[in-house]
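Quick one, T. Sequence first:
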Amino acid sequence: MKFVDSAKIYVKAGNGGNGCMSFRREKYVPKGGPDGGDGGRGGHVFLKAHRQMSTLLDFRYRKHYEAQRGVHGQGAKKNGKMGKDIVIPVPCGTVVRNTETGNLIADLTEDGEELLVARGGKGGKGNPHFASSTHQAPRYAEPGGKGESLEIELELKLIADVGLVGFPNAGKSTLISAMSAAKPKIADYPFTTLVPNLGIVQYRNYNSFVMADIPGIIEGAAEGKGLGLQFLKHIERTQVLAVLVSADSEDIAGEYALLLKEMEKFDPQMLHKPRVLLITKMDIVPEGFSCPAFGDDVRVLQVSSITGLGLEELKDALWEKIEPSRDVSQECKTESE
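Structure tokens:
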């Protein structure tokens, strides 16, 4: 399935049905009063988050959504039916903005979360509503209201516990395939990964966490070079960052510093996330390899996705940083309930 993480669509709620101007006409009732029915409300337009969806691809082929208008009122005080609502499914993690103003409308992160994005027009009132003691035969009925319409921008930001960050060929795709059932494309050349990949990592005691592999970062990624700007946003939501540097790098410390610099330029808050530094490809470590010192504030792990070296220790280290945020999230959810 092709990965698409942005789209613009036009949504139009249904207009309300018109109220009816009618008078009762029956045998032996020569002066029947007004009996026009009300018009039905126009259909609303909703967005609904679905965890089964993983891309905005559908919106590349359909860009216009319009809900049904309300049915007009009829005589004999028959009210018109409401127009049918439209519910548009989107992936969890979809950010919704008003295209014209750029204002954030909502951030849909929970499965089943709904957003009323365009409200249907009110149904018009029939002429009985305008009768009074001095005006008993009103020849006026209210027209239906206009349904709201707007163009919205949808932007998908993946929701994962761990985000893998590194230069091209740092071993991100190999790592995620070794730790989960994800099967990204793997080859020995830069930019093998062209779209983000998600993998579910099974942990002890029936726990699990989601890992995201994004295309490799290059210097200047925060300004849009390479694929960085397009995909750095997908690690904004992650709880933990795993920064990967290959053991055969000529300057491990320099690469690590450069990756942090690019993330900071894109969003300074990224550097406040818990993170670990992974020295990858230890199965091909050059002779005389010596890992540079990074200080006590940086957790450094040496791993090999081919031999499995350090992978269990890596799971423990990641879970140690993920679990506190899971507990806080659960507490907040319990309090809200």
